[in-house]
Amino acid sequence: MKSNVGIVIVSHSPKVAEGTADMVRQMVGDEVPLAWCGGNPEGGLGTSVEAIMNAIDQAWSEAGVAILVDLGGAETNSEMAIEMIGEPRAGRIVICNAPIVEGAVMAATEASGGAALKDVVATAHELSPA
Amino acid sequence: MDANAQASVLITHEVGLHARPSVKFTKLAKTFPAQIEMALTAHGPWIDAKSIVKVMAAKAPKGTTIHLRASGEGASDALRALVDLVERDFDEGAAHARTA
User: Fold this and answer.
1) pTM of full prediction above 0.90
2) CATH 3.30.1340.10 given to domain B18-66+77-99
3) Cβ within 8 Å, pair B51-A113
4) Is the ipTM of this complex over 0.90?
């Protein structure tokens, strides 16, 4: 069902990203488009703009995509990926300010009920101290 | 159309209303149009039963009676379904026994 908001998980570590995605799949189910990426092209810890763009493509939904990131570069590279994807899709891709694992599970739970992108993002943001 | 409905149910699931049960609970709640609220005492405070963040934060352990109230379309159907889910141990009872 591609009408639900998609979730993209971006971590420096492929293990963290994949493990987070596993939790989302097990706890929330298959109704939400989901993709993850982690690690740099050399196989070390890091993030890659190209991998993030591919993950966004995989999880793409007309309702938009919410991205969960871990540290610094994951966020800046995600911003760069969104910029390179450009409008009109860029306007429907949002990076959540939330802890990656909890945020992904909460955002996916909200998305599974057909919530709009802004509500999915708001649910993830509820986890962060004001 | 139902105006209001109320129900309460005892949590018998081993780990209580934790992560996975909370996800199932809120996902089911979201399938109903009614406004649904939950509380750990009959006097509140009432939280939105469709909010995964709030339901998980309630951390209701095994042995807790959760109170539910709903208003609007399908209010009593919604509560019946939610009570049912809790009484079925969120459909996890058997799986838990196997892995325990």
Assistant:
1) no
2) yes
3) no
4) no
